[in-house]
Fold:
Amino acid sequence: MTTPQDELLPSTRRSLTHRIAVAQAEGRTPSLVASVVRGGQAVWHGARTSVDGHAPDENTQYRIGSITKTFTAVLVLRLRDEGLLDLGDPLEKHLPGTGAGDPTIADLLAHTGGLAAESPAPWWERTPGTLRPELADVLGEKPLRHPVGRRFHYSNPGYTVLGALVEKLRGAPWEDVLCREVLEPLGLGSTSARPRAPHAGGWAVHPWADVMLPEPVEDLGRMAPAGQLWSTTGDLSRFAVFLARGDERVLSAASVREMRTPAAPPEASDVTAGYAYGLGMELRRSGERLLVGHSGSLPGFLASLTIAVEDDVAAVVLTNCTSGLPVVSVGADLVRIVAEAEPRIPDPWRPLRDIVPEVLELAGQWYWGTHGFGLRLTGDGLLSLEPLTGTGRRSRFRANGDGTWTGLEGYYAGELLRAVRRPDGEVDHLDLGSFVFTRQPYDAGAAVPGGVALEGWRGIG
Structure:
């Protein structure tokens, strides 16, 4: 239950209901369910259906297709965090003889392994998984379509291989590992590999007539880690909170942040569209808002999980039609409606509890050549470097405990920042990946590479 201060305004709730009503009507889908999460809990649920007197609720299962890949990625990151593998490891190190070439585990997570998009015929989404009992049946005789690591190429077989990797290292079926390590700790009791009542049936809607055709429900077998799961808006709302904040019982906040970080070189069309892929998660730009999550589809079902981390808002959209309804756009709209109508109220500013004088003296204005930057010590104990003019490289830095700092993002991600001091202990300059930052532009008293002209600054004359 939500408390009064957590509830959405009536006008916001009406806007959300209007958006899904338009989506269900224009998308011509038998039913649609949606939810919105804010502040770590579900604050709205809506449903539209073509059946009089009945509407699915937050406990009704729909098939979620490729959102399953995010669950599989969580399992792989858990193995990494336990030290059982490194994302840079070749697949062959842990799962030899697959015939998948030589991708790393990170390549498979980011869809840069060069593998085919689909398994060999017949169409795996509409045929029994028993037709593909082994990895060789999923990969086929020529599994590679591109050189490893060169381009983003979405691959369902790639996630099948990752599921097999989980099984190999855990010594148990993928489904059992998922239940034990993710679903149970997060309380996702309505998420399962096979449908449980109450669940929606999947339908194909004729593109030129208002008639429907039932879609078959197939057990995907080996392909399960790529798209098998069924879930509800209630469970996916809780999963969205986990993907935004982490949960030490499953994955840390740092590890889920890594999943949300772009990891694949995008195609030119993806750059234009504002699309990128992380480790089992999609990233999209909608206006000025960055959205993360995943979409999913299988015959009869479409699904979308959308998270705006900065706004602390997420949306889930599930529907039971094969095509025709833009669930990703609907999810983005639900997030936008809440974020714009009821902007996030920031936490109160609070000063640092402890301060180290040697760190405080680094704060202030610095120059890389003639380019001005501000270095700020923030309340979370990080250093934040930002250009004074609003353009240029920026990053935050985490303390290493030895007087150095490591960049967390952007151009300086992974680069080392350190203060270089004179014999008297005064700071001469900052060294950031060999770049020298001085208190004044080309400070004549600092160790600037190449030196500073003795005659100093001059005008024309």
About this structure: Residues 1-5 have pLDDT under 50 and may be disordered. Residues 311 and 344 are 6 Å apart (CA to CA).
